[in-house]
Amino acid sequence: MKCIDYEKLYSRFGDKDLIRTMLGIFIGDFDERLAKMKTLSESSDFNGLYKASHALKGAAGTIGASQLAFCAATLENAATEGKEDSIRQAWSALIDEADCVKSEVEIILHEAGMTSS
């Protein structure tokens, strides 16, 4: 399953080295970003969760991970509403998609001789 739209990404930026650099930056703090979002969710910091979800939505959109961007937008909306059940559901979907995106990015970086850390 493709979690990143590479055709869109290549047509948008055109330079494979630039794309690899962008993916490296994206994945560089990915685990930390998700851990922070989980903490914000667990502490019911809905404003902080909204901001973090919004930032992830933009970053995911930039690298062509449109489903992850959609999941982040769903979580962003749930945080705005402050509905914990909706947040839990949105978080679960986001984590599933985040795992897929992370795996794909790590494969690309490994194949390019780059590390994801």
Summarize the structure.
With 117 residues, the chain is mainly α.
What features would you describe in this structure?
The protein has a single domain (6-111), classed as Up-down Bundle (Four Helix Bundle (Hemerythrin (Met), subunit A)). With 117 residues, it is an all-alpha fold. It has six helices and no strands.
Largest sheet entry: none
CATH class: Mainly Alpha
Distance between the termini: 24 Å
Number of helices: 6
| CATH architecture call | Up-down Bundle
User: What percentage of residues falls in helices of 4 or more residues?
Assistant: over 70%
Tally of distinct domains = 1
Mean pLDDT over the full residue set: 93
As residue ranges, the low-confidence spans are: none
Task: Give descriptors for this structure.
single chain, mainly alpha, Four Helix Bundle (Hemerythrin (Met), subunit A), 6 helices
Strands, helices and their partners?
Layout: H1 6-13, H2 16-28, H3 30-42, H4 46-62, H5 66-81, H6 84-111
Helix pairs in contact: 2-6, 3-4, 3-6, 4-5, 5-6
